Amino acid sequence: MRPTLLFLLLLLALPALAQPPTPDPDLPVTAVISFDAPVRETLTALAFFDSWRLTLNAGETIVVEMQAADGLSPLIGVLDGGQNLVERSDIDRPPAPNSLALLQYTAPDNGEYTIVATREGNQQGTTTGSYTLVVRQVTAVPLRDLPPPAELRCDAMVWRVALVIDFAEEVLPLPPTAPEGTPVEFYRLTVFGLDGFQPVIQASADVREERLDCTRDGRGVAGATVAVAGLPPLTVAGSTPAAQLALRNSSPTDRFGNIRWLVGSQDGAPGRYIAVLEGLALHQRTDEDRVSVRAAAQSRQAPLSLFMLGADGTRLDPLLRLQNQDGQDVFTCDDAGRRGCDTVPALTGTRITLPGPPAVVIQGDRFDAGGRLIPGSTDALELFLASRDLATAGPYTLIFVGELPPLPVP
C-alpha cells in the first residue's frame, strides 16, 4: 500500500518537536487557493510539501497543474475532508525534474479538500526547487443542480424557504445603436403574501460566488392589484406583505448565467404566496426555455400552481410542459381550462398591475397555459416553456401560487 500524505505529515511533525528551532525560515505553506489564480512557492529539504485548501461541490471537477523549476520533480496529491489521500498525479505520469504534473479530480461530496504540492518520493525524495500551481474549474456545478436550502439569511434574520426557481435565459446582444448602460439582462421577481406569509426574496447567479441580493422590501409595489384565478383579488397597501427584487445587467461581456431565486417567509410564518417572474422570452418560434422549480422541504406536500402568460399585445401562444427528475411528463398544457388541461381554470380573469415607472400590466387570456400539482418531494421539476406548434414567439411572465404550511408541532 502507498503511504498517504497524511501519514507523511505525521512523520514530519514528530522529529520537528524534538529538534531545536532551525534558522531556516522556509516552512510548509498552508493556505486557501482560488480558481484560476496561480500561486508560486518553493520546496526545500525541510519544507518539501505545501497544503492548499479549497471548497468543492459534489460533482465538481477540477484540473490541477504544477509546473516545476530549479530541479524539482513535482507531485500532486488530493486529500478529502477526513485528510485521506484520494488522488495523486504520479499514477500515469512519473515525475521528472522541471516537468508539469497534472491531476484531474471530481469531488464526490460537498466539502473542503486539500491539494498537497510535493515532490517525487515525498519525505524520501531528494529534489528541491520552485513551482507554480494553478487550479482550474472544468465543470462548475450549476446552481440549478444544488439542493434547495431550508433557510436563507437576509438582513441578519433567518427566513424559511418555500420555493426555489432556477433558470439560465438566452441573452441576445444589444444593437450597436443602443445607448450606453442599456440593460442586456433584466429580470424581476415580485412576491405577495397571503394569510400571514411574510415574503423575502434572495437571488444568486453563476456570475458571482456570493449572493447577488436579498430583500423583504415591498414599498415599490404599493398600489399594485392582483387578480389570479382561484384567489380573492388583492390591492397592495402599505401593510400588505410583499417583496420585489430586480436584477439588471448592462455589461457588454459578462452574463448572469444560471440564476437562482429563493422565496421565503420571515420566521417561517405560514401562509400562501403569489410570485410573479418577469424578463423571460421566446426569442424565436423554435425556442424552448427550461425553468427548474423546487418546493422546499416544508412545502413539498402543499399545492403549487404554475402559469405561463404571454405578454399583452404579442402573438405568443404559450405551451407549458412539466417533467419530473426521471424525465417523465407530469402534464402538458396548451390552453388553461381546455385542450387536455381542463382542471386548470382559464386565465382570462388573471390580471396583475405593477406600478412604475414604467407601469406593467400582466393580462391573461384564453391562450395562456398553466398547471397544478403537489410536488411530493424537493426534487427538481423541469418546466419546458415553448409555443404551440413552435409557431409564435415573444416575452412571457411566469406566476407561481404556493403555500408554506405551519411547522409540525414537536
Plain-language structure description:
The protein is mostly beta strands. The protein is built from one helix and 28 strands. It has one helix at 5-18; strands at 30-32, 39-43, 50-56, 61-69, 74-79, 85-88, 100-106, 111-119, 129-139, 151-154, 157-167, 185-194, 199-205, 208-215, 225-227, 234-235, 242-249, 259-266, 271-282, 289-295, 304-310, 318-323, 329-333, 351-354, 360-363, 369-373, 381-387, 394-404. The strands form five sheets. Strands 10, 11, 13, 14, 18, 20, 22, 23 and 27 form a nine-stranded antiparallel β-sheet that branches. A six-stranded antiparallel β-sheet has the order 17-12-19-28-21-26, with no helix packed on it. A five-stranded mixed β-sheet has the order 1-3-8-5-6, with no helix packed on it.
Low-confidence stretches: 1-24
**Basic shape:** elongated
Round the Cα radius of gyration to an integer and report it. 27 Å
Number of strands: 28
Distinct helical segment count = 1
Report the β-strand fraction as a percent range: over 45%
Outline of the structure:
The protein has 1 helix and 28 strands. The chain has 410 residues and is mainly beta. The longest helix has 14 residues.
Ordered list of secondary-structure elements with their pairings:
Elements: H1 5-18, E1 30-32, E2 39-43, E3 50-56, E4 61-69, E5 74-79, E6 85-88, E7 100-106, E8 111-119, E9 129-139, E10 151-154, E11 157-167, E12 185-194, E13 199-205, E14 208-215, E15 225-227, E16 234-235, E17 242-249, E18 259-266, E19 271-282, E20 289-295, E21 304-310, E22 318-323, E23 329-333, E24 351-354, E25 360-363, E26 369-373, E27 381-387, E28 394-404
Parallel strand pairs: 1-3
Antiparallel strand pairs: 2-9, 3-8, 4-7, 4-9, 5-6, 5-8, 10-11, 11-18, 11-20, 12-17, 12-19, 13-14, 13-18, 15-16, 15-24, 19-28, 20-27, 21-26, 21-28, 22-23, 22-27, 24-25
